[in-house]
């Protein structure tokens, strides 16, 4: 069988596991690959340069994010201008559901791979290199004689343990001052129902279980490879749902993962994990084992802090679960960050008020807030279409919120917090990263300085949240009284001034944390047992 060249394109804010997993499989089958990252329009030139140089037989573009679809369509049109013959296929969540519209609207795209792509990408390059008969490529939708042909899709998960590890970049990424890598321990989600999420639909045709797991040994093997060869110390699990439906099963699994990691000779005290979790999956025992495993941060699926909001978002968890989870994780000294989808089609002002009250109560936690966005395949997409609330143009959909006052508040939010170039989103992300950072440092380099940095970080977060609650309450009052901004410019100037101030303070704290990490690493290399931060004189001399 002839071997080919495949160029894989995807957004790479961090290593993109979709294209890198496909790359791993292609390499194991003897094909050559090149990863060409594209997260922003200004990277298109670089991708075109890669194509000229690499001369691929097949180009695969990952369009997981609907928000980036337009940029990728532009890129694909540019590619076809310089290389009209090359076969371009697209895959990921958005094309999986929107393949008909994509093939109708973007003639430069030759095919779409739906759902998981490991089998399909190998079969596709092999048929491109041989008879060009695409009828046997699983999950493929393609053009043939001016018609669209749809092949059968695989309705089982691949055996995740048998898949090669994702191809990694030449050098490990550095995040939060440590060598960093993302990985997944599973695919799919036992809940699979949330209003705004497409994961349920992505795996809905799977026979049997809604999710698939890697074995603890396979996870530990990948972690060891990253730890040993690339000196990775911070790992982020990108599973849709890291937890299992049954707490006993979760406990058993996490214990096994911990044992498998330790059996590899990894010093578990010197690594840290970030995960996402549903609040209803957390109890004392689960949190305890997560702590022992090295989890320092949980992006907790709070999503809404009112019972009606949680119900509308079909979260399957309640406020009691949320409050319990936050309390328990705090007790175990695991950091918690979260997002509140305060705007959704059926949101009411009372509900928004409850969310603001919650933000006030939990002002010590780094958080963000916003609207549940429509993604293809999600129940929200069906809801807004059925209820005639859909607005905007494909692929950048929007919707009307039923309650006029909430809709008004959302518009005001768009003109202020989410105004183009507003620094608010940047601060929210900064503070989420900052809190993870200080907990990473606390785990890997415990001591006096890391403890006092935690106090400083908490203070900054509290100060910012108090301010945000005040500003958001202003929007709420205006919407409630059906009023417009008295002075939008003034509101925005004040918001901007405060956001920039917080970003500056956050950057200062980040520098302090990085400095501490650097000094700790130097002392470690020198073989010194005592941590420099615990010796007063050294602390003073080195300013840590
Ligand atoms: C990691 C991640 C991120 C990272 C991105 C990392 C990066 N690439 O730089 C971060 C945290 C930055 C992020 C941000 C966002 N994310 Co996100 N993210 C994920 C997450 C959790 C994991 C992705 C992953 O690594 N999966 C593992 C790989 C192996 O699986 P996979 O992506 O499904 O890939 C397989 C198939 O889809 C297919 N495939 C994929 N691409 C291609 C391409 C080809 C050519 C082929 C043949 C096949 C193929 O084959 C792959 C292997 O089987 C997914 C959920 C998920 N399960 O994927 C959400 C997900 C992709 N994100 C989502 C969203 C909504 C967002 C945000 C908009 C959130 C927000 N409100 O800000 C932003 C947008 C970011 C942007 N750049 O615009 C949605 C996307 C929905 C949509 N259609 O738009 C998802 C599906 C989550 C969800 N529950 O709905 N995200
Ligand atoms: S949002 Fe999370 S919990 Fe909800 S269905 Fe999607 S993956 Fe599952």
Describe the model:
The chain has 544 residues and is α/β, with parallel strands linked by helices. It has three domains: 5-146, 3-Layer(aba) Sandwich (Rossmann fold), CATH 3.40.50.280; 174-398, pyruvate-formate lyase- activating enzyme (Alpha-Beta Horseshoe), CATH 3.80.30; 403-544, no CATH class. 47% of the residues lie in helices and 17% in strands. It has 18 helices and 18 strands. It has helices at residues 17-28, 44-54, 69-82, 93-105, 118-129, 199-202, 216-229, 247-263, 284-293, 307-312, 319-331, 349-361, 379-386, 404-415, 424-444, 448-480, 488-525, 536-542, and strands at residues 5-10, 32-37, 58-62, 87-91, 111-113, 140-144, 147-150, 173-175, 178-183, 186-188, 211-213, 234-237, 272-277, 295-303, 335-343, 367-371, 390-393, 396-399. The strands form four sheets. Strands 2-1-3-4-5-6-7 form a seven-stranded mixed β-sheet, with helices on both faces. The chain has a seven-stranded mixed β-sheet with strand order 8-9-12-13-14-15-16, sandwiched between helices. A two-stranded antiparallel ribbon has the order 10-11. A hairpin with a 2-residue loop joins strand 6 and strand 7 (147-150). Helix 14 crosses helix 16 (448-480). It is globular and about 70 Å long.
């Amino acid at each position: 069988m002839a071997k080919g060249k495949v160029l894989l394109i995807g957004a790479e804010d961090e290593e993109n596991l979709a294209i890198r997993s496909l790359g791993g499989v292609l390499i194991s089958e003897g094909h050559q690959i090149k990863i060409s990252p594209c997260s922003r329009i200004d990277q298109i030139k670089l991708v075109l340069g890669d194509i000229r140089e690499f001369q691929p037989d097949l180009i695969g573009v990952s369009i997981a994010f609907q928000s980036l679809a337009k940029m990728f369509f532009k890129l694909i049109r540019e590619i076809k201008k310089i290389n009209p013959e090359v076969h371009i296929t697209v895959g990921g969540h958005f094309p999986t559901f929107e393949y008909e519209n994509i093939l109708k609207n973007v003639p430069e795209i030759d095919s779409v791979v739906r759902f998981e792509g490991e089998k399909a990408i190998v079969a596709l390059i092999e048929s491109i290199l041989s008879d060009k008969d695409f009828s046997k490529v699983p999950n493929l939708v393609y053009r043939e004689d001016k018609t669209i042909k749809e092949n059968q899709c695989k309705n089982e998960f691949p055996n995740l343990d048998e898949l090669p590890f994702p191809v990694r970049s030449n050098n490990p990424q550095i995040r939060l001052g440590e060598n960093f890598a993302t990985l997944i321990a599973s695919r799919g989600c036992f809940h699979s129902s949330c209003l705004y999420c497409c994961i349920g639909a992505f795996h809905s045709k799977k026979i049997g279980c809604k999710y698939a797991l890697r074995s603890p040994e396979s996870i530990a093997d990948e972690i060891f490879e990253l730890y040993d060869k690339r000196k990775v110390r911070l790992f982020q699990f990108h599973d849709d749902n890291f937890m299992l439906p049954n707490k006993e099963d979760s406990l058993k699994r996490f214990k096994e993962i911990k044992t498998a990691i330790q059996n590899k000779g990894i010093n578990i005290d010197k690594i840290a994990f970030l995960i996402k979790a549903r609040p209803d999956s957390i109890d004392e025992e689960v949190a305890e084992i997560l702590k022992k495993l090295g989890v320092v941060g949980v992006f907790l699926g709070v999503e809404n802090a009112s019972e009606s909001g949680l119900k509308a978002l079909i979260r399957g968890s309640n406020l009691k679960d949320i409050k319990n989870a936050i309390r328990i994780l705090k007790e175990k000294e695991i950091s918690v960050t979260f997002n509140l989808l305060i705007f959704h089609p059926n949101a009411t002002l009372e509900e928004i008020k409850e969310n603001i009250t919650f933000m006030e109560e939990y002002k010590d936690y780094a958080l963000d807030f916003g609207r549940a966005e429509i993604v293809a395949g999600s129940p929200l997409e069906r809801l807004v279409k059925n209820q005639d609330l859909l607005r905007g143009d494909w692929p950048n959909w929007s919707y009307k919120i039923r309650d006029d006052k909430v809709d008004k508040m959302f518009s005001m939010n768009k003109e202020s917090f989410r105004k183009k170039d507003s620094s608010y989103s940047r601060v929210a992300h900064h503070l989420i990263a900052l809190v993870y950072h200080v907990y990473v440092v606390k785990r890997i380099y415990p001591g006096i300085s890391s403890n006092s940095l935690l106090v400083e970080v908490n203070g900054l977060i509290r100060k910012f949240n108090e301010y945000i609650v005040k500003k958001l309450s202003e929007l709420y009052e205006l919407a409630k009284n059906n009023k417009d901004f008295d002075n939008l410019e003034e509101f925005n100037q004040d918001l901007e001034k405060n956001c920039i101030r917080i970003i500056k303070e956050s950057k200062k704290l980040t520098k302090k944390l990085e400095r501490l990490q650097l000094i700790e690493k130097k002392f470690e290399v020198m073989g010194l047992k005592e941590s420099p931060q615990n010796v007063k004189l050294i602390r003073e001399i080195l300013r840590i």
